[in-house]
Amino acid sequence: MTINAANDLPSTRHNFTEAAVEKAVTEHDTLKYHLLGPSLTKAGQDSVDQSKVSEIIYNASKGSKYFNNEEHKDKNLTSKIERILAKKRQLEQLDLASDLRRAEEYIAELELTRDLSQTVVHIDCDAFYAAVEELDRPELKDVPMAVGKGVLTTCNYHARKFGCRSGMAGFVAMKLCPSLICLPLNFEKYTAKAQEVREILAEYDPRFESASIDEAYLNITEYCREAEMDPWDAVMQLRAEVEEKTHITISAGIAPNAKIAKIASNRNKPNGQFRVSDDRPTIISFMRDLPTRKVNGIGRVFERELDAIGVRTCGEIYAQRQYLSKLFGEKAFQFLMQTYLGLGRTNVQPAEEHERKSVGTESTFHEMSDPQELREKLHWIAEELEKDLTRTQFKGRTLLHTYEVFTRQVIPPKAVATADDLYTYGLPMFCKLEKEIPGMRLRLMGLRCTHLISTKKNNHDFFGLRRFSSVDSDPSNPNGAHTSRSIATTRDESGEWEVWPETEFEAAAAAERRKDFLEVECLSQEQESHQGHDNPENSHSLTQEEALEESNRRHKHGREILPNPTPPRMRMDSGIGFRHHDLPNPVLQRKREEKEAEEDRRKREERPWICPICQRPQAAEERAFNEHVDFCLSRGVIKEAAAIDDDRLDAQCDDGNEHEERTILPVRESLSSSAQQQQRRGRPSGKRKAGSEVAAGKNKKLFFGKACV
Ligand code: TTP
Ligand code: MG
């Protein structure tokens, strides 16, 4: 069964969420909306009154440093939006006919690239860390439970009904759901379980693409063709297999490209799947009603900017097409037009083959103000980054520094990778901040290298397959990514590789989420330091050391890209190129056997069997053939045949072609291998075989006499 998105939209579930969000926005100010955090669109919150949640977050965090930062950021964004609106008013006075024409031309150009031939699947495990924990403690399945203490990394679907979600401070979540059980993180367990899931994915697409610890893209076009399965059924089977073997559930989205597949996988969460059919009208109508924030690459900042110019759904992008490039930059224009049309990449490849755009380390720590201590911390971060750069074999041409809310960029005179260089080029920025903010107190620092150069030996392709130009590949600068105005091309410098703006926007949105998470961690630590650790009943309480340990381990976790698991059959015949039918997948195996049997049958039917008695070709059908032989024998054909004169036999031989001749010979020689094979296929052993041997024996004279070879 295929659900057609056009008929399914908008679903009641989504209306509810949108309505709740809308309420939150209209009844409260933008800051309150901002405080709802990065996981507002997470599944399982349909019945949650988000305005109440934002009220609780607002009151719980008011007065904190975090709150002040958020307020500051919100004000900045509000001013930015005012500037955008002022610019739009100016543009409205101008003749934008040429911009309109260009947008139309671009849409027409994009339409030509639409590829509906591929079936891409996005899979995402349900409440992953929580699901893994529930395997060890099944009693937690029926109660609200979260993983992560200082900040929730996730929570089960019971907890989500209370408004708890990832990226929320533990103490805020406890206010929303006082019975919430918060478990500490156990990364080893999650990595092991993710690997079990990945083993299964490799059977459906060995070149699947891991997108995070619990999600992946697969291109199942070839699988479906080989297994002669409908994508819907193939994905049902994949999900059932994952649940049976790993005991966790996954949700999936099926679509003609990765962008829509990702949106679709969230549609029927948990433990569900959704398909957007591979026809243009369905895709266009699916996108038309989709809130912009549902698109991977549109974070909460971009969402608000678009909202300000009247774009709340992807369908509303079209009406603003003449303004987009001038307001948000060329890349954003391209990204938005592709989004409106529901276009996206169809290529899926192992994550390790993707170009890495940055390598970085962020760390949270006890609030510090001592200049020497802060310098030591900066050096420690530089050492950590050096380790990461060595492991991933990169140097960075650009260095980004994050000091709490400030992120600045430095271009050192040479590409950097050693801790000493990273520290040296990081320090001036730090000193500048120190001067600007006397008595600066910090709880968060980070260093990140971008514009990477590979240090791998024999690597001629320094920048990987996809080379991005300078402004856009800054993943920690989501706003910057769509304010770039200079890049109109969708090809890299060699002109060979398509550069999908979506990849960059997705990276920018991910960086936005990461930063949000870090800031909530600061809030959590701030709260812990105020309250102390004197309430053992409070299950979210952590000592400051534990909180820091949790935070720093979480940042490290999932960064390493593991190579895709090799399906067992491929491991056995290494050296031979992979073929789908080498897979041990039972369905493919069964299909293959059926195909072989069918082929065999077809061949047998095409080639007539020669009666060893009368030498005449007979239909290659076992029963009829046996009856015919019986008939020949019972009629004393042997006797008659022995009396046949040589002319008749010659005539028979002349009538018979080479093929018949070869078939006769084994019978003469009393069942040579070819005859045995024919018997195996056509004639059962036992009675028939005995009959035929008798016949062969009796025919000896006849056949030897007519040795026309
Ligand atoms: P997600 O797939 O985003 O969330 P989830 O699997 O918990 O829930 P859903 O059913 O909505 O998919 O993330 C996968 C895991 O990654 C999650 O279980 C915990 C971890 N994680 C973090 O550590 N930090 C984060 O900000 C998020 C969102 C997830
Ligand atoms: Mg998940």
Automatic annotation (TrEMBL):
Coiled-coil features, chain-numbered ranges: none
Keywords, alphabetical: DNA damage, DNA repair, DNA replication, DNA-directed DNA polymerase, Magnesium, Metal-binding, Nucleotidyltransferase, Transferase
Region ranges (Disordered): 469-499, 524-604, 657-695
Catalytic activity, EC: 2.7.7.7
Biased composition (Basic residues): 680-689
Biased composition (Basic and acidic residues): 527-537, 590-604
An annotated GO cellular component: nucleus
Catalytic reaction equation(s): DNA(n) + a 2'-deoxyribonucleoside 5'-triphosphate = DNA(n+1) + diphosphate
Gene3D superfamilies: 1.10.150.810, 3.30.70.270, 3.40.1170.60, 5' to 3' exonuclease, C-terminal subdomain, Classic Zinc Finger, DNA polymerase, Y-family, little finger domain
Lineage top rank: taxon: Eukaryota
UniProt keyword Phosphoprotein, yes or no: no
Record bears the keyword ATP-binding: no
GO term, biological process aspect, one: error-free translesion synthesis
Record domain UmuC: where: 120-299
GO MF, one example: damaged DNA binding
PROSITE patterns for this protein: UMUC
InterPro entries with a match to the protein in the record: DNA/RNA_pol_sf (IPR043502), DNA_pol_Y-fam_lit_finger_sf (IPR036775), DNA_pol_Y-fam_little_finger (IPR017961), DNA_polymerase-Y (IPR050116), DNApol_IV (IPR022880), Rev_trsase/Diguanyl_cyclase (IPR043128), UmuC (IPR001126)
Bias type Low complexity, positions: 668-679
UniProt xrefs under Pfam families: IMS, IMS_C
Biased composition regions of type Polar residues, renumbered to the chain: 470-489
PANTHER family in alphabetical order: DNA POLYMERASE KAPPA, DNA REPAIR POLYMERASE UMUC / TRANSFERASE FAMILY MEMBER
This protein's name: DNA polymerase kappa
Species of the source: Ramalina farinacea
